[in-house]
Amino acid sequence: MIFGLLKDIKNGEYRTIATPTEILSIVSAGHTALVQSGAGERAGFEDSAYARAGAEIVESAKEIFDRSDLVTKVKEIEPSEYELLREGQIILTCIHPAAHREEVQVLLDKKVIAFTAEDSHRYGSPNCEAAGKQGALAGLNAMLTVNGGKGKFVSGLAGAPGMNVVILGAGIVGKAALSVLHALGAKVTVMDISLGVLREVEARYNNAVDTMYCTKENIKKLLPQTDMILNCVKWPKGDPSYLVDREMLKLMEKGSVLVDISNDTDGAIESFHETTHEDPTYVENGVVHYCVSNIPGAIAGSTSVAYAAAMLPHFMKLLNDGVEEACVKDGFLRRSLTVYKGYLTHEETSALQGRPWIRPEDILGIADRDLDPAPPATVTRSDNYIKL
Q1: 174 and which of 169, 273, 294, 347 could share a cystine (Cβ 3.0–4.6 Å)?
Q2: What is the pLDDT of residues 21-51, one digit of tens each?
């Protein structure tokens, strides 16, 4: 098969989903690899390194789409790429389908086979760890007086106390942020709805980190003494409530910082709106908001290496075994199947967009096979089934 690596064109996106190391593995397995010129340049991987790994360097995205069986990149398919899609072509990228109705419609109309990468991770995405760690550092940068914050130093100085930080959510993102902030000397409170997870945090940090059950009421109690709050909660899409509403911001001192790492429109933070690396912050009710949508892009070199390594097994299954067998062998890849030749196969998108869907195992005709198990990607359910 022919593997195609696109250059990401989203504003502020510098990562790549495959480095020369992955290209070498793909070519060594007998496949052809096409790499769009500049695909890895901003992450530190020159075209010459891809060529030494066995890739053919091509100039245009059109040539990648025209020639490749499997097309990959980091972020969503952009409008300028819609007309380049081919029927039956396999697409693997972060589609975020539930939030992108137009993109989903194009994928359906073009009858491609598309996987959304963010749902395919058995052990959590390396991008989540990167977002947590770099998001914590970005919050500290926003706290600087010269950037609009109140100028409090993370660990304090002699005679001046350090920062009080609240982390909402103790998943991969929250734990990654905690590892950085605790190491730098911040006083951190971690909030989650799982007492088991909170016990894990206490044990790991020898009770040097405070924990609280995550409710709106408990957050309100903490905000008057909170210098920085980080949202790391994967908020259920379609939930009209907020963990932090605009009125709650008034409880914080002016120059305090809110970092929305989870970064969802209609998510846990009412005052959220997306920002970019070029213009990363805004102030609302005196609170500096950092809401960059692709935080890992700021550390594109490290993130690309980690992310590409995690994605290589998916590439190899699809290239070596084809879609059906790959989805039999890997339940996490199967659950990430988003559209298949004109049919929606993504449950969360069905529920939130009101579209009928069909389970991947049914459309692929593998429901009676011994399938590798995987839990649903989200808590959102839909019984709006397509009947064949």
Answers
A1: 169
A2: 999 999 999 999 999 999 999 999 999 999 9
Q: Give CA angle at 93 (88, 315), nearest 5°.
A: 75
Question: Residue 96 catalytic?
Answer: yes
pTM over 0.85: yes
Catalytic residue (choose from 8, 31, 69, 96): 96
How is 145-211 classified by DSSP, letter by letter? GGGTS----TT-BTTB---EEEEE--SHHHHHHHHHHHHTT-EEEEEES-HHHHHHHHHHTTT-SEE
Per residue in 309-337, pLDDT (tens digit) is 999 999 999 999 999 999 999 999 999 99
Residue with structure tokens 């190899």? 316
Catalytic residue among 264, 289, 330, 346: 264
Say whether 143 sits in a helix, a strand or coil.
Answer: helix
pLDDT digits (tens, 9 = 90+) for 147-185: 999 999 999 999 999 999 999 999 999 999 999 999 999
